[in-house]
Design a protein that fits this description.
The chain has 212 residues and is α/β, with parallel strands linked by helices. The chain has 2 domains: 128 residues, HAD superfamily/HAD-like (Rossmann fold, 3-Layer(aba) Sandwich); 76 residues, no CATH class. 51% of the residues lie in helices and 11% in strands. It is built from 9 helices and 5 strands. It has a 5-stranded parallel beta sheet with strand order 3-2-1-4-5, with helices on both faces. α6 links the parallel β2 and β3. α2 crosses α3, α3 crosses α4 and α4 runs parallel beside α6. The longest helix has 23 residues. The radius of gyration is 17 Å and the shape is globular. The relative contact order is 0.18.
Length: 212
């Protein structure tokens, strides 16, 4: 193995309770959050070529879901309220899974390329809010920056090309079969689901650390 791709939310930390905390953190706009969730689901897996295309599609779809919105209102809420709220909530209430930093340090020291691949933006701010040093990653990107939300195959191909990865020598670690798992399988990368069972994270640690 020469590279590992890590998802962020639900993978490097247990995100149980996160949706409720996001609602309570901006309860006045919970209806906008509902529109975002439906819009995100509607456009996932589609290639929009770049981040601008992804967000234009997302905000336009939010307006379709809630016609009382406008694209600019949706954009402003997302960029100025929702994403900063995610960062703040992580800093206040969440922490990395056991031995995350030690694992990343071990992989880094062994020369294994480590990539963070999040479905959301503000990815660097979010890992820093969790207390995970950004320098432990060789690349930090969002699916939107790659042109399409997970499980967009074209986004994965761009990620592979950008970071010079060999799918046969790469492991993808995530928490959802429908996004992370499908992303990995679409390009022939082995996938490990940290929520497969109660021992999945511990088993991953044993596997990766024993490989060193």
């Amino acid at each position: 193995m020469k590279s590992v791709i890590f998802d962020l939310d639900g993978t490097l930390y247990d995100n149980k309770g996160l949706p409720l905390k996001l609602v309570l953190g901006d309860i006045r706009n919970m209806w906008v959050l509902g529109a975002e969730r439906k819009a995100r689901k509607a456009i996932k897996g589609t290639d929009f070529h770049d981040a601008a295309g992804v967000y234009d599609a997302l905000f336009s779809k939010m307006v379709e879901v809630k016609p009382s919105l406008t694209v600019e209102k949706a954009r402003t809420w997302y960029q100025q309220k929702y994403m900063p709220l995610q960062v703040a909530v992580l800093a206040l209430y969440f922490q990395p899974r056991p031995l995350v930093i030690e694992l990343l340090e071990s992989l880094h020291e062994q020369g294994i390329k480590v990539i963070l691949y999040s479905d959301y933006g503000h990815e660097t701010e979010k890992i820093e809010a969790l207390g995970i040093p950004a320098e432990l990653f060789d690349g930090i990107v969002s699916a939107a920056k790659m042109g399409g939300l997970k499980p967009c195959r074209e986004s994965m191909l761009r990620l592979i090309d950008q970071f010079g990865l060999n799918p046969a020598e790469t492991l993808y670690v995530g928490d959802r079969e429908d996004t992370d798992g499908e992303s990995a399988r679409a390009v022939g990368i082995k996938f490990v689901n940290v929520k497969k069972d109660r021992n999945a994270w511990d088993n991953l640690l044993k596997s990766l650390l024993s490989d060193q």
